[in-house]
Design brief:
heterodimer, A: alpha+beta, Sulfite Reductase Hemoprotein, domain 2, Sulfite Reductase Hemoprotein, domain 1, Alpha-Beta Plaits, 4 domains, five-stranded antiparallel β-sheet, 17 helices, B: alpha/beta, Rossmann fold, 5 helices, globular
């Protein structure tokens, strides 16, 4: 994985010093809260309901064990002994003191980490396929391109005060595991007919209150023009994105109002202009970065056989492991969704354990997924049972990846100052209900996502079942959506009808799954059945 | 030092208000006019660009411009950064002045986008400002200043896309 050189380290250190100075000026009253707010946000620091929340960047979700250990140490030293992995592959801490924040950033900098641009109206931390470098179906490792973009977007002088936040995801396989088309820019690395690698740019996707799936803006940008094209995309947005209404300020609204063709044509004009300005790093820089992402020393000649005689182990392998490009290896997902637990939360102890396992079993590497789980990307099949036993003993072997218990939920009204309703207790109740009844195992793949307000941090639009918490005359109320998906077949969920109270929505989810169980045909997932039979049978069961 | 300027005073475009200037030529001493007025007024040499203006409207006239003021009515509106770079990329070599809600923590980025003078609506603390101009030991991107990006330093002088 990528390692800082002295330049990268200098930049992160400079940022820590800058933020320490900004915090000092704020505490001395030289900066008003309005002036300080965007500055602290660009260092990941939010003021939430009960305390400051710090969001730490995990570029493209990749961590080594030293970094993972540091995340555990911070949880213990500055928080209440846990952290929360997020839907953008980051981690956030919910109980931070403002005066500690510069010290936390300094601690992070010692392990080549930071909280740069994890919030604010700027280019956010770049996300990527969590199986990058391991997946059997990728044409290239997407992370070198994400790293190139990370450096370009860090402290970008022109794009630090955009109309609104800006999220970029990079993938390099047909199967989209990063919800790429629900980002402001989604980049898919692929090969053209001549066999050359290039980047397809999808622009203007997003969730929030106006969910949109991004259109393809340009099919093939040569790899030695990536930065120039991205710069053109951002400049058109910075100049023409709406600034009169923060709810209409995302680039998806610009594309919607301007039209994708007109946007593409303006970007192309800007791109042609920028080609002559010398802003593109040399190809040697991309090659330098790529070298860091070379395959780890995989052992050749390992068998692919697995002893699946242990039923629980077999279930975990089927549910939580993913095919690897190298024979004899698998990618294993550690579910952070124990039955009845808080989705994405991990204790300092668990974080340290996962760090040790990454070191022992996966070439010192782990990944954060946008579904709020942790992946050990490169595990030898012959050692998988030993890994599983350790996870099992630590309560980290819940076999529920992509099942109904693998719920994505935002922090909701338990923490967030924007939320209208709690998300965590709803997730806990659903998880518990389906585990107790055993229905969860019968249902198979069902992606359930919960947001505590229309900002959609819990990705409810993209859930096979989505739940949106709203405020209804001072009471928490939950709308149910069906039919969303974030994968290659991206679609947006539709609202079933009137909302439910907290217990009511748990019942409603069960009713919806009962319709599926009664109506499914051979091999159909919940989503497939819904797409075949439509909304009516579900409405009938829910409201009939 | 400059005088404190009240936020209700709209006629403050004179050189007296410039707190930081990175040029050695004489400053323009007459007020800047709007982009619309400038395009039709052939004797003006100073123009003021508002966030909604298209700086490319000025490109046919660069030869007669000595001063472009780019107004930041609010520091959170970042259109002025693009305006500045567009002018510099087109070869504009005259004074490029950031005016309005110009604060300490935006100075280094403004400088990188090509601004070479600064007239904040409220004067800035000199020490804080000097520290802010020197925030970044190196830079990751090519922009409108002459700084070599880190990628160029890594790969030697002949680097460049």
């Amino acid at each position: 994985m990528y390692q800082y050189d002295s330049y990268d380290q200098q930049m992160v250190d400079a940022r820590v010093a800058e933020f320490r100075d900004q915090t000092r000026r704020r505490l001395e009253g030289k900066l008003t809260e309005d002036q300080f707010k965007p500055l602290r946000l660009m260092n990941g620091l939010y003021l939430q309901l009960h305390a400051y929340m710090l969001r730490v960047a995990v570029p493209y979700g990749t961590l080594n064990s030293t970094q993972m250990h540091m995340l555990g140490t911070i949880a213990d030293k500055y928080d209440r002994g846990y952290g929360h992995f997020t839907t953008r592959q980051n981690i956030q801490y919910n109980w931070i003191k403002l005066e500690d924040a510069p010290d936390i950033l300094a601690d992070l900098a010692t392990v080549e980490m930071h909280a740069i641009q994890t919030s604010g109206n700027c280019i956010r931390n770049i996300s990527a396929d969590h199986f990058a470098g391991a997946a059997a179906d990728e044409v290239a490792d997407p992370r070198p391109y994400a790293e190139l973009l990370r450096q370009w977007s860090s402290f970008h002088p022109e794009f630090t005060y955009l109309p609104r936040k800006f999220k970029i995801a990079v993938i390099a396989s047909e199967t989209d595991r990063a919800a790429m088309r629900l980002h402001d820019i989604g980049i898919r690395i692929h090969r053209n007919d001549a066999g050359e690698l290039g980047a397809a740019f999808y622009v203007g996707g997003g969730m929030g209150r106006t969910p949109m799936i991004s259109p393809l803006i340009r099919d093939f940008v040569p790899l030695d023009r990536l930065i120039t094209y991205a710069e053109a995309c951002l400049r058109v947005y910075n100049r023409h994105g709406r600034r009169d209404n923060k709810y209409k300020a995302r680039i998806k609204i610009l594309l919607h109002e301007m039209g994708a063709e007109e946007y593409a044509s303006q970007v192309d004009a800007e791109y042609q202009h920028l080609l002559d300005t010398g802003i593109e790093p040399p190809f040697a820089e991309l090659e330098r970065i790529r070298a860091f992402f070379a395959d780890p020393p995989f052992v050749d000649g390992l068998g692919d056989d697995l002893d699946l005689s242990d039923q629980l182990f077999a279930q975990w392998v089927r549910q939580n492991c993913h095919a690897h490009k190298h024979p004899g290896y698998l990618s294993a997902t550690i579910s952070l969704k124990p039955v009845g637990g808080i989705p994405g939360d991990a204790t300092a102890e668990q974080i340290h354990l996962m760090a040790e396992l990454a070191k022992e079993f996966s070439f010192d590497e782990c990944r954060v997924t946008h579904a709020q789980n942790i992946v050990l990307p490169h595990v030898e099949k012959r050692r998988l049972f030993a890994l599983w036993q350790t996870l099992q003993a630590a309560g980290l072997a819940t076999p529920n990846l992509d099942a109904i218990g693998d719920i994505i939920a935002c922090p909701g009204l338990d923490y967030c100052s924007l939320a209208n309703a709690r998300a965590i207790p709803v997730a806990q109740k659903i998880s518990q209900r389906f585990a107790d009844s055993g229905k969860g195992d019968r249902i198979g793949e069902l992606k359930l996502k919960i947001s505590g307000c229309i900002n959609a941090c819990g990705h409810h639009h993209a859930g096979h079942i989505g739940i949106l918490g709203v405020d209804k005359k001072g009471r928490e109320n939950y709308q149910l959506l069906l039919g969303g998906s974030e994968g290659a077949d991206t679609s947006l969920g539709k609202i079933t009808g009137p909302g439910f109270d907290e217990d009511g929505v748990v019942d409603a989810v069960e009713k919806a799954t009962d319709v599926y169980l009664a109506r499914r045909e051979e091999g159909e997932r919940f989503l497939d059945t819904y797409r075949r039979i439509g909304m009516e049978p579900f409405k009938e069961a829910l409201y009939g | 030092m400059v005088e404190q300027i009240s936020s209700t005073d709209s006629e403050w475009a004179g050189t007296d208000d410039v707190q930081f200037r990175f040029r050695s030529d004489e400053a323009v001493d007459h007020p800047a006019v709007t982009v619309d007025a400038f395009v039709g007024q052939t004797n003006a040499s100073a123009v003021r660009v508002e966030p909604g203006d298209d700086p490319r409207d000025l490109l046919p006239h660069l030869g007669r411009i000595a001063l472009v003021e780019v107004n930041f009515p609010s520091f959170g509106d970042g259109r002025g950064y693009s305006a500045a770079r567009i002018l510099r990329e087109a070869g504009y070599a005259g004074e490029l002045r950031a005016v309005g809600d110009v604060l300490i923590d935006q100075l280094s980025h403004m400088r990188r986008c090509g601004f070479d003078s600064f007239a904040p609506a409220r004067p800035l603390d000199e020490d804080d400002a000097q520290r802010a101009f020197a925030t970044w030991p190196e830079v990751y991107q090519a922009a409108a200043d002459t700084r070599q990006p880190i990628w160029a330093l890594r790969h030697g002088e002949n680097a460049g896309g």
